[in-house]
Amino acid sequence: MRTFRLLSFGLVAVLLSSCGYEQSSITGWNYNDPKNGGFQKAPFEEQETGPNLVLIEGGTFTMGRIEQDVLYDWNNVPRRATVSSFYMDETEMTNHHWLEYLYWLDRVFGLDYPEVVKKALPDTLVWRSKVAYNEPYVEYYLRHPAYRDYPVVGVDWLQANDFCSWRSDRVNEFILIREGILEHYVNQIGEDNFNTDAYYMGQYESGKRIEGVPDHDPNGTGYRRVKMEDGIMLPKFRLPTEAEWEYAAYGLIGNSLGERVIERRLWPWNGHALRNPEEKYIGEMLANFKRGRGDNMGTAGKLNDNADITNPVYAYWPNDYGLYNMAGNVSEWVMDIYRPLSLDDDDDFRPFRGNVFTALEFDEEGYLMEKDSLGHIPRRTVSEEENIGRRNYQRADNINHLDGDYSSHIDASHWSPSYEDGEEAPESDYMYEYGQKSLINDNVRVFKGGSWNDRAYFMNPGTRRFLEENLETSYLGFRCAMDRVGSPVGLGGRR
Question: Do 387 and 277 lie in a common domain?
Fold first, then answer.
């Protein structure tokens, strides 16, 4: 992992003073020169790799599954798509990671806003069954150290997103402390906590040191806060899109010759077997899944995957990207809203359904709104009025874009007999008739991969299922992703 050091700012300053300033290629004026106004060009090579992240080199692949659709869903037929390079956690988030999150929330918000902590608690009751003795998991699975390296479950989609936001701020705060820009300030309470957006917008002052990034503005104080243009802080953590998750799971980088994929993979590994073919590990299960009714782990003395429920996140072999458990252990949340035939309407570049465009919120006098009681900068959905004349979008909420419209590939008449060509498109709830014809609405999210409680069929990366975003299960977890900015492969990659 490349470590960016703020010392480089000082080094660059010395070099510039001794060897001359770098000049603009369009104006000839010096960069970083107070005599010329002080426009700065920060030293930057490439994006730092955050903790637990793996760089997934993007590319094109066949998204969807081509094997027999035993459920006859026909909701993920093959199509070509391109995914940009991005970062993804090498493992699922664990119970220990979540306890770290809960501890921070309780320390910062527990006194004044206990509901924040309560909202973040996983639903441990997901382990209960009317005809099974699972009470020990209810009590022990989340908090006992024996399960600390096991994937966290009982977390809904909304909670997973909140975790990603929290993690973004904690990682960026650590980077600023590491670079000597912020003091280590442990007494953060309530809104007085580090938030990346609030810091960028000048609404976080606690712990800020006067000696920060050198400022070459002749009218400045000599130092300033970090800006995005400096490239010091990382982009935000988030859930991966469905396309990103599926692409990363296949790990085709280890199954290609030049630009030719030698063989389409059924699993995140080569071949059609579920056991390791290597002589040293021959016969050992490559993932944690359910072989059949009543068989979660095999016979005593020869457990075939050494797991009755979940297993530690490093218990099995990674795929060719270095990602663990992209098949089995727990299924995983992704960003996308579920639609059975999104594939017909999604873009072929970075496909995703679920965009709701937002903007910063300003008061009547044009000033940025103050951060809220939790330290977050308010945002609002963009209005149709401010989008008049735009060609790429007109409304903020695009969840239902082309969803049953006449211009869509989906024939809405199959869903609503009263709908005729040329009529106004029906609303999604009417189209799918949630609770009558389907369980599909605008709050249903996709989850991917098989789990300890699933048969092998669901471990194929092309399978997709859905669940309400506010529901939890004992077999559904998540991992985070992050955008890759700049070069898809980095300075050490191919040119």
Answer: no
